[in-house]
TrEMBL record:
<dbReference type="Pfam" id="PF08327">
    <property type="entry name" value="AHSA1"/>
</dbReference>
<comment type="similarity">
    <text>Belongs to the AHA1 family.</text>
</comment>
<dbReference type="InterPro" id="IPR013538">
    <property type="entry name" value="ASHA1/2-like_C"/>
</dbReference>
<dbReference type="InterPro" id="IPR023393">
    <property type="entry name" value="START-like_dom_sf"/>
</dbReference>
<feature type="domain" description="Activator of Hsp90 ATPase homologue 1/2-like C-terminal">
    <location>
        <begin position="16"/>
        <end position="137"/>
    </location>
</feature>
<protein>
    <submittedName>
        <fullName>SRPBCC family protein</fullName>
    </submittedName>
</protein>
Length: 141
């Protein structure tokens, strides 16, 4: 049994949209493909999502120039519609996302276990960039 405590990283955004819309845009594959990447040089050509406890998800993140791609995938351990998503990434790390309605806006908070290869600030920056893309996509549509 692993006894080391993994570093937790949290990113958050206030999205100018009601929680029902935020939930829909977070979970529907046609929307995931519009925001699940960290920079304009990348895109998400494939996404599938079964947003329920024990459901699976997979999003392909790829460089637009074709030089690199990877699948971000895992299994949901707990899902409460419009409130919380918890999942295990394929590499074993855990993620928790909360959706907090604040009138006509929604606070999205993601907390994830850091991986051991890249610096913490780089990981935080990447996850925050993806969350910012989500916010932009949701507010613009």
């Amino acid at each position: 049994m692993e006894t080391a405590t993994k570093t937790q990283i949290t990113v958050e955004a206030l999205v100018k949209a009601p929680v029902e819309k935020v939930w829909k845009y977070w979970n529907e594959p046609q929307h995931i493909k519009q925001w699940a990447f960290a920079s304009d040089e990348w895109h998400a050509p494939f996404a599938e999502n079964d947003a329920r406890t024990n459901g699976k998800f997979k999003t392909t993140m790829a460089a637009k120039d074709g030089s690199m791609s990877f699948d971000f995938e895992g299994v949901y351990s707990h899902v409460e519609p419009n409130k919380v998503i918890e999942y295990d990434i394929a590499d074993g790390r855990k993620v928790k996302i909360t959706f907090t309605a604040q009138g006509s806006e929604t606070k999205v908070t993601e907390t994830f276990e850091a991986e051991g290869t890249n610096p913490i600030e780089m990981q935080r920056g990447g996850w925050h960039a993806i969350l910012d893309n989500f916010k932009k996509h949701t507010e613009a549509n």
